[in-house]
Amino acid sequence: MPQLKQSAKRLRQSRKKATVNKKIKDGIDYLYRQLKKTLDSKEIDKAKELAKQLSKSIDKACEKHIYQKNNAARKKSRLMKKLNSASKK
Fold it and tell me: Which of 79, 88, 81 has its CA nearest to residue 57?
């Protein structure tokens, strides 16, 4: 347990920030799972809408420094590769 007032406040802030970040990441993971399900069921139009929504939420998370810039770019790139390969079939 922190001894100083400042370190106690920092601990509270970091815990609060961690829960907010986890909620955002969980939302992104949920969208990604939904996208995989729609791609498996061959619903390309719905998958494109989900991909757009997922890409937007990844960008927002990157702006809030939840994801690093390159990490977000890699996630979006892999997402688009899956979407494009599914739409060609």
Answer: 79
What's the CATH number where 21 sits? 1.20.58.110
Q: In which residue are the tokens 């909620």 written?
A: 23
In the chain, the number of structural domains is 1
pTM of the shown model: 0.86
Domain that holds residue 11: 5-88
Question: Which residues are CB-neighbours of 51 under 8 A, at least 6 positions away?
Answer: 35, 79, 80, 83
Terminal-residue alpha carbon distance, the chain = 57
What does the pLDDT profile of the chain (89 residues) look like in tens digits?
889 999 999 999 999 999 999 999 999 999 999 999 999 999 999 999 999 999 999 999 999 999 999 999 999 999 999 999 998 87
